């Protein structure tokens, strides 16, 4: 299963990049606000854009690798005998390179046109698509595991095994998706409100807590 470890390593790199980018941006803001570092407005704006691109790129890459890992696990379970012919090292490297290139390009466009609702809507669509994909794959794998547990139980005439196995699987799946929803939900809501009602008083109030949404996403990465 070496391709899976490539994906996990890239997920770790993207998650670390989230924290480092936010830390560096926060550090620069503190230094500039306290006049420890004096920069021209143009230079400060360029540095801010670079940090925003890194943060957005790491977010997109992290979510993409979560989706790729879910797909990899799905192939392992449903196409076990063909796994090594489907998910080769070469294909894994191509997938990894494509994710980083697309994430970087999309993040650059998003930061350059962050006031354009169409761009924000495209990003929101991508995030919701990845969330739905991850949920669907894990739910399907859970249902398969439950059917297999029941089949094994019928073969061995042990009626308590499937209940325990299903309960453990349900708890694991609930924790996985629950943490994901709690951490990413406020960020998704922020994007939805930005597209649908940016001038509403409630939206303005919610936008003030954007940093909290980012912190929750970082917690999910951790």
TrEMBL record:
It comes from the Eukaryota. It is a multi-pass membrane protein. Pfam families: 7tm_1. PROSITE patterns: G_PROTEIN_RECEP_F1_1, G_PROTEIN_RECEP_F1_2. Keywords: Cell membrane, G-protein coupled receptor, Glycoprotein, Membrane, Receptor, Transducer, Transmembrane, Transmembrane helix. This is Melanocortin-1 receptor. GO terms for molecular function: melanocortin receptor activity. The chain crosses the membrane at residues 5-30, 50-71, 92-112, 118-145, 166-195. One of its GO terms (cellular component) is plasma membrane. It is found in: Cell membrane. Belongs to the G-protein coupled receptor 1 family. Gene3D superfamilies: Rhodopsin 7-helix transmembrane proteins. The gene is MC1R. Residues 1-222 form the G-protein coupled receptors family 1 profile domain. InterPro entries: GPCR_Rhodpsn, GPCR_Rhodpsn_7TM, MC3-5R, Melcrt_ACTH_rcpt. Its main location: membrane.
